[in-house]
Amino acid sequence: MSDELVYLGILAASIPIGFLFRYLSPPVKQGAALLLGLSVTIVTCQIHTLHSLVTVLGTWIIIKSSWRRASALCLAWTFLYLLFFRLATWCGLPQPTPFANAIQLILTLKMVSLANEVHSFHMEKKKEVSSFAKSPVVGGLSQEPSLYDILSYSYCYLGIMTGPFFRFQTYVDWLRQPSPLTLPGQIPCLQRLKLVPIYGALFLAVNSVFPLAYVRTEEFLDHHFLFRLFYMTVVFFVFRMRFYAAWCGAEAGCISAGLGCYPAKALSKPGGGPTVNYSPDPTTQEVYDFKTIQNIDCYNTDFCVKVRHGMRYWNMTVQWWLHHYIYPNSPFKAYTLRAGWTMFISAYWHGLHVGYYLSFLTIPLCIAAESAMETSIRAKLGPRGQNIFDWVHWFLKMRAYDYMCMGFVLLKASDTINYWTSIYFIMHILAVCCIILGMVLKGGKREGKRREREEKTEGEKIDNIKEEIREKTD
């Protein structure tokens, strides 16, 4: 049985099972979700289940022994273990299965987030004792999780392989829902699933006509340049359809169980959950949403204008994780360099294949190019001109993602470079030309220095925000 069919079976089964979980009490729900998730892990990963178990136990030891430094230590621990996990064969260990890799990726996000949540809990508790006032922090823990709680969160069947990522507090809120049967479920679940058959059919149909393996053949290079250029467009289309179907199905599984269901007034963020305190209003009918577990915005992924915005709507819960735990701790101040650092960490999280790094590290170059064009050309245009500019910008944004996707799916450096060579590194050259043109139109070095000052100022603002957050938790 192919891996895709196994994933499909797990996602399909999770939807009806989720509705049954709404009938369970919190302790039973916690135990059942752990048992189901652990069973899926053992069946699909077999002996490789030990990798995830060691990661969880290591995180628990760090949290219990040094909660003050848990955030940094858990990030180091989980990312170093990822390296060991991927080089397991070098140590004479068997190659982990793709399922074990998927579980390890999601687990890494969970453990880093958990360490940060525990650290914030202790800091807020310390502050409450000294100030005799209840902490105003939104979505904070009420107590430090036990080993059983951590294991239950780690192996919860929801999103265990495909995501979405969710915080420990989101998991606790799910367990403690007072009336899960009254929360919306069937309608939002069907709403999320309605396009999945179309995504799946398009994936199968287009992939059968334009297989990725054809790019690696000598015959492919004999085709006209325009055909080779067109091929990256259909490869990225297939890539999107596959993940649209998988992530929408995964979200539907969470929706059916009620995970991530909060009042709309909580202003929830994908991955992070509520951003403002909320309380039920008995005089009005509450409106709920599932934004906390939304991992993909298909429409905006396709039709947003900018490269930087495209990242916001793709794998949204992971983007939240990167934005909160990696981007603020970047060793750089300039936005472009911070973005490059974040993309490097994202590439490492995905794997060690050079194609990941070639793709992700092209994103900062594209962001710099679009910023140069916006400030030097778009800002000087009228409404009609800006509208035309945006359509051209959108077209080039999609081609940039087509181009970068090739590295992501080809994986090997040789395959990626060979393909990019066959289309003359067109997007790299175009991006560099846009940056140079922007510098010329903006006044060369003098304007470049002003831009550097602006980037430095933006970096300082981020550092100030970070410092304010630290002061609130000290």
Main attributes of the structure:
single chain; 474 residues; mainly alpha; 1% strand
Helix-strand layout with pairing:
Blueprint: H1 3-21, H2 26-45, H3 49-65, H4 70-86, H5 98-131, H6 147-154, H7 168-175, H8 186-193, H9 196-209, H10 218-221, H11 225-257, E1 262-263, E2 288-289, H12 298-303, H13 307-312, H14 316-325, H15 335-350, H16 354-360, H17 363-376, H18 383-410, H19 413-422, H20 426-442, H21 445-473
Antiparallel strand pairs: 1-2
Description:
With 474 residues, this protein is mainly α. Helices cover 69% and strands 1% of the residues. It contains 21 helices and two strands. It has helices at residues 3-21, 26-45, 49-65, 70-86, 98-131, 147-154, 168-175, 186-193, 196-209, 218-221, 225-257, 298-303, 307-312, 316-325, 335-350, 354-360, 363-376, 383-410, 413-422, 426-442, 445-473, and strands at 262-263, 288-289. It has a two-stranded antiparallel ribbon. Helix 1 (3-21) packs parallel to helix 11 (225-257) and helix 11 (225-257) crosses helix 18 (383-410). The longest helix has 34 residues, at 98-131. It starts with a helix and ends with a helix. The relative contact order is 0.09. Residues 444-448 and 469-474 have low confidence and may be disordered.
